[in-house]
Amino acid sequence: MADDKKDDRELSEDEKLAAEWEAAMEESGDKDGEGDRTDEWAAAMAEAEGEDAGKDAGRQVRAAPMEDFGDVPEPRQRTGTEPDLDVILDIPVTISMEVGNTQIPIRNLLQLNQGSVIELDRLAGEPLDVLVNGTLIAHGEVVMVNEKFGIRLTDVISPGERIKRLQK
Fold this sequence. Notes:
Blueprint: H1 2-10, H2 13-28, H3 38-48, H4 53-56, E1 95-98, H5 106-110, E2 128-132, E3 135-145, E4 148-156, H6 159-167
Antiparallel strand pairs: 1-2, 2-3, 3-4
């Protein structure tokens, strides 16, 4: 008896459920779980739904017909080590520049008004972060191009470094 309690504690919930399922299948005489019990199943389902079990007992369960799609073409084979970028070249991404950031309590946030100054974690003249869909890809500095702001990239983050940052 003590061994049974110990075994129950060592078994996971999935293992307990599997053991209960196996015991129920053995009791019903269906060891591999593939017996033909559609009439019993239909009656149990009808009873659960509040219908007359006798009416549904003759219902048969059959596999749905599947359409034959014929031969599916093989995926295009790439030659060399170049990735096939044509698939993603037209996907739009959002590029943003971050001057800096800070954390403040909501109490201070609610007290902000026009003319308020928020101290950021970045020094004046330090490069800005260039983000693509929220992921840092480069650093740069602000420039003017035809009376519009632009950014000149000063340092591009390597793909290996980007992957390391994503895993954090």
